[in-house]
Hints:
The chain is an alpha+beta fold. The protein folds into 2 domains: 7-100, no CATH class; 122-261, Hotdog Thioesterase (Thiol Ester Dehydrase, Chain A), CATH 3.10.129.10. The protein has 5 helices and 14 strands. It has helices at 7-14, 141-150, 161-165, 176-191, 278-284; strands at 20-25, 28-33, 36-37, 40-41, 45-50, 68-69, 79-87, 92-100, 130-132, 137-138, 195-205, 215-227, 234-244, 250-261. It has a 6-stranded mixed sheet with strand order 2-1-5-8-7-6. Strands 9, 10, 11, 12, 13 and 14 form a 6-stranded antiparallel sheet that branches. The chain has a two-stranded antiparallel sheet with strand order 3-4. A hairpin with a 5-residue loop joins β13 (234-244) and β14.
Amino acid sequence: MHQHVGAVDQLVQDLAPLRSFDVQRDGLLGAIEPHEVAGHPCHRLVVVPCEVPHAGALDLDDAGPEVGELPGGKGSGDRMFQSDHGDAGKGEHSQEYIRAMSDENASPSTQPPTVSWLGRFLEDFTVGDVYRHPLGRTVLPTDNSWLSMLTQNTAPLHFDRAYAARTEFGRPLVDSTFTLALITGQSVVDVSMNVRANLGWDRVRMPNPVFEGDTLYSQSEVLSVRESGSRADVGVLTVRTVGFNQDGVVVTTFERTLLVYRRGHGPGLTTVSPVWDQRALKAAGLSL
């Protein structure tokens, strides 16, 4: 088992009489085997840390009032109680949540799943809004050479390192169509998850080069929002998207116009649900 420090060390000591649980903190995962916690039979426990004021040591005898149903709902067998420990050596405070995993008699949850993000519909856009897109992406040499080959781009500047070394850049230049595609893709989560059709790009500019190893980020500003004159289920959206590297250097700007569904329209997300056959139930340690 991985060695843990501070609060998790104390937690392991407190639960030593038990037979098995999983401990996770700062990316480390270990296991001890509990048979039962606060009278609740289980296979394993997962400990998840978060910052809270120091509140003393874990006392399993007092855990009963702290035990509560997890989101799995009644009958799921998932329960949770908490342990508070301070990290005296560093003056830090943390709290571990111990989750007893479902026992073999638990059934799959009947609670409807929650979709984390449906994207924006036409009514959600306001002129002047700026969205910082959440993901960055490091450009790899494979990205550059593969896209050049896939698109039959024969310019050696993108895939011949010896050739590129003799240019003013001194190294391969990333294919600008890759940059355009990547920054457009980064914007989808905020701008066009509910797109009907992309109408076009305007004022596409590449003011600074992109090199292999650069990490690109982006943000978009809403320039205009209007209803469609011919389609009642969509409207027309225009945004300006800016892509920049790890140093904040702008590597591309463009305006993009697209048709976006109005709320309540469009195909919607799939409604397929998991079908629990015996193999799946056994694998998950569940039963009907």
